[in-house]
Amino acid sequence: LAGTSIQARQILAATIGGSIQSSDELGVTISSEYQTNTFNVSGNVGDNVTITLGDLGSANIGGDFGGDLTVNATIGARPNVTINGDMDGTATFADSATLTVRGDFGTDSDSLARMDIHGNAHVTIQGDMHGDLVVGSRLESLVADNYYDANVFVGGRINSISTTNTTTGNVVNSVFQAGLSAGDDGIFADNIDTMPDVFEGGTLEKIVSFVAGNVSNSIIAAGHDIDTFRANTSISDSTVVSGFVLGHSAAASLLNSSNKADHADISDDMSEIFGATTRTLYYGDLGTVYLGTATATNVNVIAGLDVGENGVFGIIDDLESRVLS
Predict the structure, then answer these.
(1) pLDDT, tens digit, for every residue of 82-119?
(2) Under 8 Å CB-to-CB from 89, ≥6 apart: which residues?
(3) SS3 category, 257
């Protein structure tokens, strides 16, 4: 299908018996202005394939997905999308969505795989998560075998994040934030080339439950309470903080595809990430915090304390004395 363009006011149902593949020079474009009830591909969806739909009932991709999917939600139907292989592409939903990836979401640390869901989200990954997830409203559930180099920013509440196996599942070099909105345009501003729009910034939202086996070199933050945090086996070089929202400029830096290689180890950037001037201090409690049966080393557990301009908890500067709890 390289070089093919399919455009219609409405594609009620689409079934493709093989794969959708393009070439480097010739892409594939499929677009429908109104509702598509089903969109099924028995094989892979390759790179340089762009699919734009007005609304979507369900989609099933039989293999890997490396293209770009956009659902504009003209009538607000909630799509249910299943990818039976790996996902290294991008997906954008103007409203709520349910997604299942039966392979890996992002296949390595440099992956540009990303989901943007502007409403509520329910995401199941039956492999590892290397990619980025931005949710505008509530994250109902997120589960993956392991999280490596993952970024999860949620404008509303996080109900549940977990590893599939809550004893052996790993969370490594990853950032999770409840209560950071990307605003009306869905894009975090870097305060250099772009400036924040209306409603962009911190909100008073909680994490209900975060459960994993091993957590290392990671940030778990909420603009309000964290009811339950459990690293059931071990935790190291990580921060769990309630009542604190990372700055939108920090989110922009972490999500910027050209910077991916620069964040191979976020421990090198912790002070910069925490200390961004666009951060917001709220008040928030910590409920149950469990720091493993094996080891807990170099861990910050913080409630309602500002990090200060130096971006380091525990080293007092002019602003770190601000406390809301």
Answers:
(1) 999 999 999 999 999 999 999 999 987 667 899 999 99
(2) 45, 47, 49, 65, 66, 67, 68, 69, 113
(3) helix
d(CA 291, CA 233): 7
Identify the DSSP state of 269: G
Q: What is the pTM of this model?
A: 0.92
Give dist(CA 185, CA 198) in Å, integer. 9
What's the farthest any 2 CA atoms get from each other in the chain?
63
Q: 121: which strand partners?
A: 97, 139
- The residue whose two tokens read 């409920």 is 287
Query: Within 13 Å and on the Cβ side, how many CA atoms surround 58?
Result: 4
Residue 324 token pair: 């809301």
Nearest alpha-carbon partner for 264 in 178, 172, 187: 172
Q: What are phi and psi of 194, to 5 degrees?
A: -130, 150
> How far apart (Å, rounded) are the C-alpha atoms in residues 204 and 4?
47
